[in-house]
Design a protein that fits this description.
The protein is mainly alpha-helical and about 425 residues long. The chain has 19 helices and no strands.
Amino acid sequence: MAISLAEIIILCLLVDWVFRQFKIPGLIGMLAIGALLGPSVLDSIDPALLQVGSDLRMIALIVILLRAGFELSRESLNRVGIQALLLSFIPAAFEALTVTALGPRFLGLSVIESAILGCVLGAVSPAVVVPAMVRFIQERRGTAKGIPTLVLAAASIDDVTVIVAYSVLIGIYSGGKVNIAWKVAGVPIAIVVGIGVGLLLGVLLYRMFDRFNPRATKRALTIIGVSILLVQLGDFLETRDLPFAALLAVMAIGFIILERRESMAHELSAKLGKIWVFAEIILFSMVGAQVNFQAAADAGLTGAALILIALAARSVGTYLCTLGAGFTSKEKLFIVISYLPKATVQAAIGSAPLMVMASRGMPIAPGETILAVAVMSIVLTAPLGAWAIAWAGKALLTVDTSSGMASHRAVTESDAAYEALED
């Protein structure tokens, strides 16, 4: 496993440098390296590494979500609250309903099978979106109107909404007993409880750090450890049908520390930025390794057409959410583009319907179709979406020249200021 990990690190660092010379986001190269070395092409990654790939992806996602939390200043959230709420479910609903309506004609699925596919496709990818928004906040692009913060907050809640809808539909389809009212009520409950637990833990961690004053590296590692436990708690509660948005709790930890002490948030963001260099490689290479090109090819042109039509419907929903918020046409276009990439959720649950159908003795052909289209959505949207977001941020967002944004000050000061600190 160590050799495979070393190969991935070296190749990803190399391709990241090469891609950046051509003004292409480095993560596209990392996705390509993962796909190339993965089971679908060269199959050279140690199976032991692939077995722990989901855990590694989650740890890497935690790192970037923690960094995102340090950028969610109260002033920015106050500006974008309503739009973030709308973006958390309307675009996904537009996309899922479109897939539900067209799935029977395009792919021969039943209505409920098409609805399940719509939920699988409906989630935006935090793996692609969050790092880009972190970078734009550091560059102060669009921060005057809180646009990166808007996308960060909305995308995180979007995933919670879609996964809950998916769990309801797959439960009904497989013949299980599903309390629909509880599932629907569970969405706001999961959000509120997740944020509340995160804020509470953030306060406790802040007070502990303030009292004992551990080194910045130990603070960062402590927060990462607590966040991993939070995600495990979320998985445990999910098996017992108890709503808890663990990833929102992770982001809330960073938010409350930023509110309490900006300098401490700065230290932690700087340390997490260094850890992210490694975590980014792990996240995108492991996502790339999940890509099954044969499954994507099996979806065919009809699957690709369905994905593109659904993305068009999603874009309409996203655009409607931006109306009345004072955004320019360029800013609206940026938000629409930012809401297109698929990767993390599709890689995580794309194969789940197939496994459910196989375990229940049901025909597996619909599950194979759902998996194929989910994989194709990653192939089509992750690299192109990453490139489009990078282009759109520079071409469509203006740089904020004011000096009063707390979230910016907490994350953009040079890491060199902390090199003198003891590690």
